[in-house]
Specification:
The protein is α+β, with helices and mostly antiparallel strands. It has one domain (5-69). Helices cover 21% and strands 19% of the residues. The protein contains 3 helices and 4 strands; from the N terminus they run ββββααα. The strands form 2 sheets. It has a two-stranded antiparallel sheet with strand order 1-2. It has a two-stranded antiparallel sheet with strand order 3-4.
Length: 72
């Protein structure tokens, strides 16, 4: 079963925020509510949830990464 909630942790200020992930898209940018930093995915990750979240994004969980996120 795909989980839609993830806790994003800012790598700069360690602020944590519980967020609901979209099921049909990857989130490439996220603005930290703690320090205002603009987070983007680490190299090799499709989205900020896969890089900084407690749960990987729904497309990765469901095995639909290529179709949804247009990964190569």
């Amino acid at each position: 079963m795909v989980q839609r909630r993830s806790i994003l942790t800012c790598p700069i200020c360690s602020y944590r925020s519980a967020e609901t992930m979209p099921v049909d898209a990857c989130v490439w940018f996220y603005e930290c509510r703690g320090c205002g930093a603009r987070l983007k995915p680490k190299d090799g990750d499709c989205c900020v949830f896969c890089s900084y979240g407690s749960v990987r994004c729904p497309p990765v969980q469901a095995g639909n990464l290529r179709r949804i996120c247009h990964a190569t």
